[in-house]
Amino acid sequence: MILHLHNGTSADQAEEIAEKTQSVYYEKDGRFILITPSKLQEPPTSFAEEIESSFVMSSDIQLASRSYRNEVREIDLKHTKIGGSTNNTIMITGPCSIESWEQIEQSADLLKSLGITTLRAGCYKPRTSPYSFQGLGLEGLKMLSKIREKYGFNIITEVRDASHVEDVIEHADIIQIGAKAMYDHGILRRCGKARKPVLLKRGFGSTLQEFVQAAEFILSGGNEDVMLCERGIRTFETKTRFTLDLCGVSYLKEHVNLPIILDTSHAMGYRYGVPDLTRACMAMGVDGLLIESHPNPAVAQSDAAQQLDFDQYWEMYSSLEPIAAAVGRNMV
Ligand code: PEP
Ligand code: MN
User: Fold this and answer.
1) Taking the complete model, does pTM exceed 0.90, yes or no?
2) Ligand 1 atom closest to Cα of residue 181
3) CATH number 3.30.1060.10 is the correct assignment for the domain at 75-331
């Protein structure tokens, strides 16, 4: 159950109510919001005076639930907004990893020529092998900050583990939590205290319930700006890298109030399938599309097989425009 306390309830009172109801709580604009275990089905009568409104929940998908807020949350991404009544679909692109100044500048020029403003590149890569390229780390973050200064983009980059979470929060405009970090409660809780939007990727072995509950760790820390990213789950199929769960996307659209971003690159794993899949996702009217692109994918240090070169990105982008128009979305 979610309890909104009256404005003006003191921090001591809020803490006492939270303790008695075993709640997690946060403060937003002078109001305390408490989240009790979902099995509580009646608001506690002993605190009737302090409670302004209560929302009964059927599972621990609470703050993210449509029963709490029956809308897609609006999130301000500095250069653009998504969710709410915007009908915006944010086009997030850039290389899997930042590799050099020259590479990231070329990527920035692609975005500029398309008129889109959200550049992504990883600096701390969650590689499956310790012998693969691990990312440029802090040096990469600093380059991304310079790119922001030069082009005025939103920068999205991922946090891999707790060792560099502060650096990523400092340098990013949008913090990406990768599929493998979805269960890292240290990262989730720290991002709950960050004042920047978070893009949370679905773990490839996670159910939708687990996925959204991971988002609840961030939301219940007081960060209301969380986007969910479906990037493919592991199934028995081995011909493609993962299986993009579009049924799951329909479920989320129906039941969850967070904007939904689709990552077709990591789902497919091979560039030949990415444009078709991305068109299918646009037709679903999602809030964002994350597609990896690289000036020369053949020499990419990570995810070389799935990144589009700039011509391929342009071609795909142009083919998305009529689909976006047909389903009432604005590509931003
Ligand atoms: C990435 O975005 O480059 C990445 C590593 O993705 P994921 O966490 O989905 O595997
Ligand atoms: Mn990648």
Assistant:
1) yes
2) 8
3) no
